[in-house]
Amino acid sequence: MRIHINQAVPGCVLVNDVFAVNETPVVRKQTALTEQLVEIIKQFLIEYIEVKPVLVNGDPFSPVKEAEVNSRHQQPEFEDIYDTAVEAHEAMWRSWKAGGAIEMTKARAVLAPLLESLEEHASSVFTSYQFIDQEKYDSHHAIAVALLAAFLAKKHGCSRKEWAGAALAGLLCDASLARNSASGQSEADKHPIQSYQMAKAAGTVSDEVLLAILQHHEREDGSGYPLKMKSGKIYVLSSLVAAADMYHAMAGERLNSEGKSAFHVMQELAVHSFGKLPPAVIETLTEQFITVMTGKKVQLADGRTASIVHLDRREIEYPLVQLDKDKEVVQLNETLAIHHVL
């Protein structure tokens, strides 16, 4: 019988092999599931499995209705999920800094809860930079890029496997920087190759994810690095991860630079990404930003709050807003801009 993974219980017996990223099964057929195996399957974002109608002990298996079991798996608040992911990434970062290898099971476990709530918390995908703790910037950046890359890939028409892969690439594309910063090396331009090598050594990762890690700093005009690739040789997931990386790097607050509002960042990206990213990727990023931000509450530079009424892609930095206090509709400008999203 076909069941949702949330309906699985210890003792369920698989009818078919469970595959994820390559030809090697995650779990083989005839395996009796344990709680640990169920969690592993979830980490690969596999939603449905085929199991026998009887458990391994011979008892009949009557799964709880899917709607009922899914209601028991309600997610906590997004910021709590996000903070948990950042702390988990911090632990991985410390391990990499000490020379440890990437553990793909742990990496996927970090992503799974975030990706389950991706659509529900779409606005947070664009505003997660507001959660940044500068002392943990690298982990915040990795989680934020993973989230946005997955969201963009999904909206770009990629398959579930592909957008989950975009998230994994976003999470791991800067992994080698942990080692470089620890040893005092100034080899930032080499980090895509080194991160690619770390991910490849970990195994159980698709070639598409490895390519996205390797190419996330390549640009359509050949101005990127490390291989100076040009349009036609850059994989679409690589460009989607690149867009997410550029967006968050510009919006987030680095230790020695002041962050900019998401609206200012989008205005800059529209200009500076021309010739750097595929037009279709820029269009997906812009269209989704407009869709998600329309109707959002914001605080203006003068302290007043408002709701976004309309975003013009030609001047996305200065949307039309309705003030909360007197309901006046105002066109924002250089002297009255958005401070942050509420």
Brief digest:
With 342 residues, the protein is an alpha+beta fold.
Give the overall form: globular
Sketch the topology as an H/E string, one letter per element. Answer: EHEHHHHHHHHHHHHEEEEE
Count of spatially separate domains: 3
> Order of strands across the biggest sheet?
6-5-4-3-7
Write the layout of secondary structure elements.
Elements: E1 2-4, H1 35-43, E2 48-50, H2 66-71, H3 78-97, H4 104-116, H5 122-127, H6 137-155, H7 160-172, H8 177-183, H9 191-202, H10 207-215, H11 236-251, H12 262-272, H13 279-293, E3 297-300, E4 305-310, E5 320-323, E6 329-331, E7 338-341
Antiparallel strand pairs: 1-2, 3-4, 3-7, 4-5, 5-6
Helix pairs in contact: 1-4, 3-4, 3-6, 3-8, 4-7, 6-7, 6-11, 7-10, 7-11, 9-10, 10-11, 11-12
Keywords: Hydrolase
GO molecular function: hydrolase activity
InterPro entries: HD/PDEase_dom (IPR003607)
Question: How would you describe what is shown here?
Answer:
- 46% of the residues lie in helices and 8% in strands.
- It is of the alpha+beta class and 342 residues long.
- The protein folds into three domains: 1-74, Molybdopterin biosynthesis moea protein, domain 2; 78-292, Hypothetical protein af1432; 294-341.
- It has a five-stranded antiparallel sheet with strand order 6-5-4-3-7, with no helix packed on it. The chain has a two-stranded antiparallel sheet with strand order 1-2.
- Helix 3 (78-97) packs across helix 8 (177-183) and helix 9 runs antiparallel to helix 10 (207-215).
- The longest helix has 20 residues, at 78-97.
- 39% of the residues are buried.
- The mean pLDDT is 88.
